[in-house]
Design brief:
This protein is mainly alpha-helical. The chain has one domain (about 15-85). It contains four helices and three strands; from the N terminus they run ααααβββ. Strands 1-2-3 form a three-stranded antiparallel sheet, with no helix packed on it. Strand 1 (about 70) and strand 2 form a beta hairpin. The longest helix has 12 residues, at about 55-65.
């Protein structure tokens, strides 16, 4: 595979949708940025003990992703509390 195909493949394969209810502008920058992976390694979570650690993972996601969840303002528009971008509800 040459360089052009590699670059083209990177941009074409990176089209995942953001989770519903989250700011699309912030989601690309907040995709854990490797922090969740490091935390999982430090916590010792593996496929064998994932059910015992589910509460820890949910708490981590709530703490780190809560700031990009869209909230409604007085005009019923959706606003990102982090970047302050306003979206029309769909």
């Amino acid at each position: 595979m040459n360089l052009v195909e590699t670059i083209k493949g990177f941009f074409s394969d990176n089209k995942k949708d953001k989770p519903k209810g989250y700011c699309p502008n912030c989601w690309g920058r907040q995709q854990y940025e490797g922090h969740l992976y490091e935390a999982i390694l430090n916590e010792g979570i593996s496929a064998q003990n994932i059910s015992a650690k589910t509460g820890w993972i949910e708490a981590y996601a709530k703490e780190n992703l809560g700031g990009i969840r869209l909230v409604k303002d007085q005009d019923e528009q959706l606003v990102c509390p982090t970047c302050k971008v306003v979206f029309k509800p769909s």
